[in-house]
Specification:
The chain is an all-alpha fold. It contains 2 helices and 2 strands; from the N terminus they run E-E-H-H.
Length: 137
């Protein structure tokens, strides 16, 4: 039923009907694919937001832990420094006291020896000893 070289109007309408049905099926399939893509995009956005929140929370917790550790380390270093300075101060004090004790002992012994010598000389004991030992012979 062709009219010359062209198909008949019935065949053309049937062909167009098939193409329209085919397009409707393809549009339906594309809409399903588009819907799946939308769901995947929404799912990715939700996961991205969850990941971002997790990263922010972890970052905050990490900063807080690092701050606490830094404070603790600073306090420990300060205590160690104070202890070291105290030990150094104690050592300096002990060295000074040792030197003072040494000079005090030397001075005490010197005073006792000089006092004894002066006592012997002033009392005439040494002079008497010299005279009796060497002059009387």
């Amino acid at each position: 039923m062709t009219e010359g070289s062209r198909p008949s109007m019935f065949e053309t309408v049937r062909d167009h009907d098939e193409k329209i049905n085919n397009h409707e099926e393809r549009i339906g399939a594309l809409e399903k694919v588009d819907q799946k893509h939308e769901e995947r995009i929404n799912n990715l956005e939700e996961q991205s937001i969850k990941l971002e929140n997790t990263i922010l929370k972890t970052s905050t917790e990490t900063r807080e832990v690092m701050r606490e550790q830094t404070e603790q380390q600073t306090e420990k270093l300060f205590e160690l420094l104070q202890t070291a300075m105290g030990i150094q101060s104690t050592r300096s004090t002990q060295n000074h006291e040792f030197k003072m004790l040494k000079w005090n002992t030397i001075a005490t012994i010197g005073m006792k020896v000089s006092g004894a010598l002066l006592g012997l000389l002033s009392s005439g004991g040494l002079l008497y000893f010299y005279i009796t030992e060497y002059m009387m012979k």
